[in-house]
Amino acid sequence: MNMWQKAIEDAVQKTKVNMERFGDLFPHVSDNDVYLLNPNDDWTDGFWSGILWLCYEYSGDQAFREAARKTVASFKQRLEKNVALDHHDIGFLYSLSSKAQWIIEKDEAAKALTLQAADVLLKRWRPKGQYIQAWGPEGDEHNGGRIIIDCLMNLPLLYWAYEQTGDAKYKEIAVTHANLSRRYLVRGDDSSFHTFYFDQENGEPLHGGTHQGYRDGSTWTRGQAWGIYGFALSYRYTKDPLYLETSKRLARYFFERLPEDNVVYWDFNVPVDADTKRDSSASAIASAGALELLDHLPQDDADRKFLEDGIQRSMNGLVDKYATIGKPDAQGFIEHGSYHVRGGNAPDDYMIWGDYYYLEALLRLEKGLKGYWYE
């Protein structure tokens, strides 16, 4: 059994135990190594569903399938009751739950639910500014003109809806937002802003900023990772070479800055000392995203070897030094993720999205399973 297989088997076993621990609740981040649970009312709840579907595809164990299907039923109720859906993370919620079920089982009810979710995401579209608003109600004084780099991972829900329906509005909005993100969130040195603000009335660009990074002009490592993966997915759906180029630029910036143990700190510009927090989830996302990027590069591409080495270094670092292999009671797959360091919110804990992308990257490497961002 190679190291990837060992890590996958460990994650699958932990998921089986977690199914009993969590019951009908959803894990978010941990506190003292115990996952905090919620009744499907947070932006992160799709990642648990995605982990269950990945475990089912890998193992064929019907227990994972039944647990995953139960989460989809919960997401159906969440949409019907409109529980905590007033944000842009609808793609994270429904791509990894109901869309995953459609991809695996071709369940028509799951497809219909996912299309309804895409319509919920469209409600975040602001025609005056030509962007998808990240947070808050329309007209919100602070967030009304804000986009964030995370949203690139929600756009695949709209691309998919276009493919399923032929309705051009889904793709047009996704492309418009991706282009705006490329222009204003990606800097000339290939780093990235976490957020950018626009005038709500006329769409004029105002300034870059951050919410979870070290400072407005720094590069939040998880944001850089979202950009790697998100632009690679926009390329998959549109074949616009500018998206491929942007994903490569962001990936090179990320992997050129790996620290000695190959797992990144929470921000590329934060002063580093013995107490500086890591973000293992950023390394997991970047690895999965770079694996997606490699799917689109020819074998003789000048950046291919560098990207392959970066992925290997990152994943080796996670498996060797951050994974909970050999800790059967651990609830998370990888330690030392960070949610919001400056805000004091889970600065050094398990992150359910870190666990998801870690497992997705492992399954890409070992089995060619690629998650649920596209069919």
TrEMBL record:
SUPFAM superfamilies: Six-hairpin glycosidases. Pfam families: Glyco_hydro_88. Substrate binds at D89, D150, G208, T210, R222, W226. GO terms for biological process: polysaccharide catabolic process. Keywords: Hydrolase. The active site is at D89, D150. One of its GO terms (molecular function) is chondroitin hydrolase activity. Belongs to the glycosyl hydrolase 88 family. This is Glycoside hydrolase family 88 protein. It comes from Paenibacillus sedimenti. The lineage of its organism: Bacteria, Bacillati, Bacillota, Bacilli, Bacillales.
